[in-house]
Amino acid sequence: MYKRKLSALIITYNEIGYIEECLASILFADEIIVIDSYSDDGTYEYLLKHPRVRVIQKPFLNFTEQKTFAVSQSSNDWVLFLDADEVITPPLREEIVELLNSHNPCEAYWFYKKFMFMRQPLHFCGWRTDKNYRLFNRSKARFTSEKMVHETLDVQGPTGIAREKLIHYSYKSYADYKSKMLHYGRLKAREAFYKGKKFNYLQLALKPLWKFSYHFIVRLGLLDTRKGLIISYLSALGEIERYSTLRRLCMENKKVVSYQPVESYN
Question: Is 122 left (phi over 0), alpha (psi -120 to 50) or beta?
Fold first, then answer.
């Protein structure tokens, strides 16, 4: 038998109403660690009372930094990393156990997702092909520092893809998803700014239009009717926020660079 112990890791901020189902789906893990960014909706208090959870509060800087910290708290090499609004189905749970018990597993596994819009499946908008590393050997993988959002896992060794899909309750409400897209946009802007990217008005004009067209037309979001229209619009709104924030950062930096203190002579 090759029983490998598993640590389930989650990062949270105001996830009450979703974290409960997520935790219930990962009780098969040997330990559950949650890194909370000072939630104020009862999430932290709920986690403190949960008998299986070790919760640590830590200020949020960006997704890569927060997830890297979470991995560092794991007692085991094998890690299952979930968002608080994701759920492991019974078939996927069985597959994870099977992979952990296999003689020669890969070092990391991609999971495809089944996206939910207000608890109803979202079939198109490009989400059907979206996948992320969720199960990996932390001694052979690390989150790269190049991205602050949609973080990338650098894996040393072979990787695989799980057969079963992860359930992702990505769209809880219009206000919640809008807030998420704006937050992502601001993080992407800071990421681009720190890499030395410059702002130009053509990007601000064209990138949101392309984002909307890509999700609604190219990736067939129109077949999801109203759901597809909302997702495509909010994705474009995130791009507007991204390039508007980049413009502000570049202008602020230009003012600092151009400022020359005047010397006083006695």
Answer: beta
> How do residues 36-47 score in pLDDT, each as one tens digit?
999 999 999 999
CA-CA distances (angstroms) from residue 145 to 7, 14, 100, 150, 198?
22, 25, 28, 11, 20
Neighbour count for residue 160 (Cβ, 10 Å):
14
What per-residue confidence (pLDDT) applies to 130?
A: 77
Mean pLDDT of the chain, nearest integer = 90
The residue behind tokens 């704006």 is: 182
Per-residue H/E/C for 25-65 = CCCCCCEEEEEECCCCCCHHHHHHHCCCEEEEECCCCCHHH
- Structure confidence at residue 195 (pLDDT): 87
Calpha distance 52→46 (Å, rounded): 12
Averaged pLDDT for residues 209-231: 91
Locate all alpha helices (DSSP H) within the chain, ordered by sequence. 19-24, 43-49, 63-72, 90-100, 174-194, 201-213, 225-258
Alpha-carbon torsion angle 46, 52, 57, 59, nearest 10: -100
Structure tokens at 30: 């040997």
Angle at 161 between CA 147 and CA 135, to 5 degrees: 60
10 Å Cβ neighbour count for 50?
14
Sign, CA torsion 228/165/169/154 = negative
The pLDDT score that the predictor gives to residue 138 is 96
User: What is the per-residue burial (b if ≥16 Cβ within 10 Å, else e) of 217-226?
Assistant: eebebeebee
Report the distance separating Cα 115 and Cα 167, nearest Å: 6
Digit-coded pLDDT (tens) for 194-203:
889 999 999 9
Whole-prediction pTM value?
0.81
